[in-house]
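User: Predict the complex.
Assistant: Input components as received:
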Amino acid sequence: MKIDILTLFPNMFNDIFNESIIKRAIDNKLVEINIHNFRDYTLDPHNKVDDTPYGGGSGMVLMPQPIFDCVDKIKTADSKVILLTPDGVKYEQSLAYDLSHEKHLIFICGHYEGFDERIRTICDMELSIGDYVLTGGELASMVITDSIVRLLPGVIEESSHINDSFNNNLLDYPSYTKPRVFRGMEVPEVLLSGNHKKIEEYRKNESLKRTQERRPDLLEK
Ligand code: 6GU
């Protein structure tokens, strides 16, 4: 998979994809991630990428030209263009699975107080990561990229995401490791039993119980 991210703040991405699982995925050529500064595409003599809104009002609005030109340059027939904005569809695990099957994703990070409405016409999809407002789409693009890359074949063992929280709309079951007793807290007996059928049953029940307690909305899905 290839992921291109369009931003005015490329430095925000310096470390985030340079650690841990995402770094290994890049090193192993399971994903290619490119960060583009769309200011590099401006035709404005002063390198401007935003201007005041028509009709008045506060704040600056991202102009369409630099973003259109940047997308035109990197887009192919296989690309899916995604705008990151608080007014987008709310992102969730099922979308991470869907997007993990795409060949090429282009994320456009909105910034400042807004972007020219015509930018929406070149986007296949608009995503939000939740009902709160961020200063820009950068953090959202990192969150979404991370959640997709970990699902790509070969990045992590498939068995470790089969049981992820939100798969089958259930939260994860509790896990324990050594020691068997820690500060008086004991590991549930069933996990020490070696009875795999019983263990599976216990985990399924705990998953259900936890979902019922914390996220009953998931059970209605
Ligand atoms: Cl994608 N962008 C911004 N600016 N704020 C957000 C968001 C995106 N998702 C949630 N809040």
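The CA atoms of residues 151 and 160 lie 10 Å apart.
Let me know if you want any component modeled separately.
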